């Protein structure tokens, strides 16, 4: 018996070396993997996690490469909240009401924060110590720290939040997309930075930044709604909401809804659509109402009152002869406003042109803000220079006292009146000197402070300058006419507070080039007794300032060189003789029918600044068919090779592999049965176990897509799967594995007698290997980024019997699985798919984009861009795309026309030069060709 067994072994080793190796290789594996089995499982799990993370990272990188944005969980959560609450009530009404309420809450919270900073500063100065040096340190330390914090915070979070915000909003409403200007991080930087800046006591305002903040809130709300309501994806609808947001910003800042709407129209738009009127009013009223109600609820106010309430005499507030004085106030305010704008622009350009200083300040970013804040805080110290400029008062208190209803220069004063006047005169000076010093200090240092890289506005400083100037004129009028002006037998007393109101409206209107400031003043004071003087002074100041200088916001646009369209000068005759063909861009980037996905992706990557692309019939015949938004093209690419399509194709491949595996298994079974019938059974025949490694490799190869399958040899006996005869060999540590067939790709089948010689350790390793190899092509429906695709449900056969008692408790597969490709297959599949032509039928094409013909005058182009608010238009010739005009080219052309450099003569001369250069180039090419022909012959 022993000899027969030995002979059997020798015969098997000589005739079937592969079977001999596969039979006894498991014994070698047992010794090799006993110690590092746990490490092997951990390495496989780690490798699969890294593979899944790399796959997700590639998907995000592709989306970011084309879109330029990332998915935000905040927007997803907010969109779900909106979809299940407010979206059921309506569209614009709820949107505008929410916008107004949010802005009112932000304004109230910021005012409370500013008040806390101001009160803390006064408390440190008054109550902490009595020593002058200690009081000075306490007075200047908090403003300097707040300014340095604000400068550092906005620089790190969002540098786009620096400055006012109205010039940029004017540019955005003209159709220009400023990068990351209306984002959430810009909102955070603007709110926190503005609170710290105003809390420091710098002569700066909050009106401009509030317009920017309201615009950001409107943009974020639109993004949230866009996730389920596509109407807000429309560019015109987005512009309408931004126009309403500008009104909300002013309304929530001053509790002036009517003036806020008019002010936003004057400041931000050239042509205003009347259909947006009700949106601005409704949102501004919601914001202003909630802002004043919050003061009643939380500050224990008696009722809803004006921000700077006055009590001027309503019976006879002014004499008709005083109207001449009010007109003079408007004239002087217009000159002063133009001077303010000119000095501001010259100072900013000086700081920018001095390269050495500019380079030094860029390296030391905190030096300039620290020096300016220290100087301003030192000058406003109450025990020093601050006693001449009411340095101990906050901005709100200063304006409220300037609007007071009594005369400061009279001798008989009540206790309350004397307390107010004590802030505006000293033992050695009177109110006139203090008002002049206050006016000059605010004039110059508001200009210097506005150049600090922090969020800030200029409306409140110029408002205070005008109020001080008007108060100065009113006090002088009282000295000249102590008993009032006599008219018609009656004496009209002089009200200096009314002059202050008129001066504030006139000077701020001159700087901003707006008349609606008068309406804001009426809403802020709660009285319209001085409506005629205010309107006269505002109109006169606007007329004078407009002749001398642009508005402050237009001046900032010129300084920053924003792509804003200037107006054509009426005296320029070139506006009728310059056509769009003279300044259009002829090298147009376009797509066409039949373009491949790969070529489309390359065009999108190379032109990330284009928000839409024209689509033509073909490159040879570029007949304009329409335009497609960049977002639509990106969505089409993602739909074509995205995760959903990839999983669908992988599932299809898996199904085909399963069918082929079943057919192969059935074929092998039939061949085994036929072979079993043809050969004679032997009592002493031994059927060795198959090569486990080769069978596992083949099983996994069957799961791969058809083009990625490996050519592997079977490496097992053709009689595998049949019932062998009883072995007469010595009994070893072997077992019968039920429920495993290596040919099955994912679910084992029952094989009654399959003998494996090896050990428990090799079986455990085989189970681990099978699990991990399956996990490489099976993934969770919603995979966890931390654990990748490894899960822990039980492995069992088709009959529900566990593979081994120990493994079923420790290793489990996820309950729900989806099939995905490997990295190599995904790359090959994407390469193949990207070579296919795009599907134009399922693409959202705008069939009527803005088009111009070559002979359209620059005046018509300017009017079209200004009224409609577009940012580009295509130029066609008999339907064929020949060029494109964007805001940049139009702006440059308008500037050249206004300066006289772009004229019909210069255009003709340029065309002749281009024709000569082209003819010369063709002649050179002809000479070179002739030379080559002669040389060759």
UniProtKB/TrEMBL annotation:
InterPro entries: CBS_dom, CBS_dom_sf, Cl-channel_core, Cl_channel_volt-gated, ClC. Gene3D superfamilies: CBS-domain, Clc chloride channel. Keywords: CBS domain, Chloride, Coiled coil, Ion transport, Membrane, Repeat, Transmembrane, Transmembrane helix, Transport. PROSITE patterns: CBS. Residues 739-758, 783-803 are annotated as: Disordered. It is found in: Membrane. Residues 741-758 have a biased composition (Low complexity). It is a multi-pass membrane protein. The chain crosses the membrane at residues 93-110, 136-158, 241-265, 277-298, 323-345, 366-390, 431-450, 462-481, 501-522, 534-553. Residues 584-644 form the CBS domain. Residues 647-678 form a coiled coil. Its main location: membrane. Belongs to the chloride channel (TC 2.A.49) family. PANTHER family: CHLORIDE CHANNEL PROTEIN 2. This is Chloride channel protein.
